[in-house]
Structure to design on (140 residues):
C-alpha cells in the first residue's frame, strides 16, 4: 500500500509540473484523467436463522488398513457429532462432541483395543534327567 501511495504522489507531482521539466521551461500540463468510482452491486446474502445440515462418511480400506468415520449434524446453533479412527498403537479412538452457544465446545474421547491381548503362558521347562553313574552302573 505504501508503494502505491508513493507512486500516486510521484505521478501527481509530475503531472503538476513539479518534477521532470527544467525549471526555466513552463508548459501547460495535460489534465490527468481520473476514473469515477464504480458503484459495486452489493448482493445481500441470504441469512438462515436456523441453519441445518447433517453428513457422514465411513472409510474401511482392507488393503491399506485405513479405518475412519465421522457423522455430524447441526440444528440452529447446536452441533453434535462423532468421529473415529484407528491409532498406530492398534486402538480405536472415538471422539463424541457437541457445541452450542451456552456450553461451548465439549468432547469426550473413548479408546478401545481392536484386538484383545491374549495372555500366553510360557511353556513349562522340559527337564531331562541325566543318568547317574553309581559304581560303574547307570541308574535311571
Amino acid at each position: 500500500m505504501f508503494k502505491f501511495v508513493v507512486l500516486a504522489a510521484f505521478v501527481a507531482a509530475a503531472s503538476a509540473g513539479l518534477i521532470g521539466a527544467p525549471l526555466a521551461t513552463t508548459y501547460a500540463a495535460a489534465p490527468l484523467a481520473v476514473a469515477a468510482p464504480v458503484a459495486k452491486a452489493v448482493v445481500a446474502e441470504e441469512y438462515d436463522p436456523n441453519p441445518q445440515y447433517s453428513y457422514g462418511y465411513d472409510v474401511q480400506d482392507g488393503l491399506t488398513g485405513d479405518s475412519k468415520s465421522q457423522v455430524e449434524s447441526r440444528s440452529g446453533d447446536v452441533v453434535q457429532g462423532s468421529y473415529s479412527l484407528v491409532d498406530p498403537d492398534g486402538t480405536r479412538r472415538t471422539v463424541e462432541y457437541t457445541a452450542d452457544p451456552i456450553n461451548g465446545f465439549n468432547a469426550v474421547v473413548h479408546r478401545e483395543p481392536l484386538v484383545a491381548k491374549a495372555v500366553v503362558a510360557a511353556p513349562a521347562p522340559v527337564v531331562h534327567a541325566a543318568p547317574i553313574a553309581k559304581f560303574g552302573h547307570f541308574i535311571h
